[in-house]
Fold this sequence. Notes:
By secondary structure, the protein is mainly α. The chain contains 19 helices and no strands.
Amino acid sequence: MHDKHSxxxxxxxxxLICLLIAAGVFVSAIVTQVYVPSLASAKWLGLIKxxxxxxxxxxxxxxxxxxxxxxxxxxxxxxxxxxxxxxxxKVIAQNLSQFVKExxxxxxxxxxxxxxxxxxxxxxxxxxxxxxxxxxSRFLCDALAxxxxxxxxxxxxxxxxxxxxKGINQLDLQQLIATVLSSITxxxxxxxxxxxxxxxxxxxxxxxxxxxxIAATLIDWLKTEHNRLEKLLPSTWxxxxxxxxxxxxxxxxxxxxxxxxxxxxxxxxDEQVNDFLHEVxxxxxxxxxxxxxxxxxxxxxxxxxxxxxxWVSLHGRMLESLTAESGKAETKVTHWLNELGxxxxxxxxxxxxxxxxxxxxxxxxxxxxxDFLTKHIEDTINSWDENEMAEQIELNxxxxxxxxxxxxxxxxxxxxxxxxxLEQIIAFTSP
Length: 431
């Protein structure tokens, strides 16, 4: 700013020096003609006088024109059409904003700019640099972490609870159970469940603890139901043998069922499952029981506690991952950005599609953006002080305008010399 003031001051001084030189030469020529009569009719003196006079007129005219742009002339009682910049602040604001809107922010200009700049490939080249991708990834992770920190847990928990409640209420649980069971029975997957159950029971029956439990149960039964007989018989030995026999019997039955796909127990299990499926599909009482269960589930405090705990856990894990330097989230996002950059630079169809969509978005946003920016320009200029605005404009372009003053002085002198020559030619050729 200080340099601009110094440059403007120096330019004004140079223009003033040219004007004073022209005035000095003009006064000197007049004085010479008055006090040196022998030179009054000298052609060279007439040329100097006329050229300096024209130079003085040109310099003064341009001084007035340049100064009238920024200052009132005279300062106390200005004549019309001076102090033009300050007096026309609103007009300047409106015209400048319209100029920017019409020349820079119309749809075709935006489309041409996007087409010529190829933003997709430029973004791709930028993202291919690992440092750039890492920097953008860190910015995105920090931004998401900041949003998560700003989020109030209470509204989120309430939203999750209401969403879950709405989802459960809208869910046709009866139809869902019927559909799942129909699918399972149609593919006979329920028999796989039975096989798994039989295997677990067989494994349980083979455990020593199970046999000991059966033997102890038999002893308790003998003591309770046949107290006298229990005292006469070797109850412990009988119980152990009975437990072993029971285990072997049950295991044999389980093995038979497991090995025989057509075993009567399997058919009985099929009938039980089919009966239950039919009841789910047709029974009003079953429908009422399912709906009651759904209502209990919706209002169960355990469900609300589970959802709240899940959100707190998810929130904490996301924050931890997003804030960790070179963590999993940052590394993953960096990798995605690198891949996107590579694809944009190597895949012409992808980059062209991106450019086309960016261009369409730019054309769509151009009118609103133009209105916003032009209004901002106009409002900003109107908010300035008139005299300060004129001073700032003069500070930025006044140095070049002082050159106009210098050129006006020089061109005026040249024109005066040419007119003097023309006058002499006419006088020489006249009879």
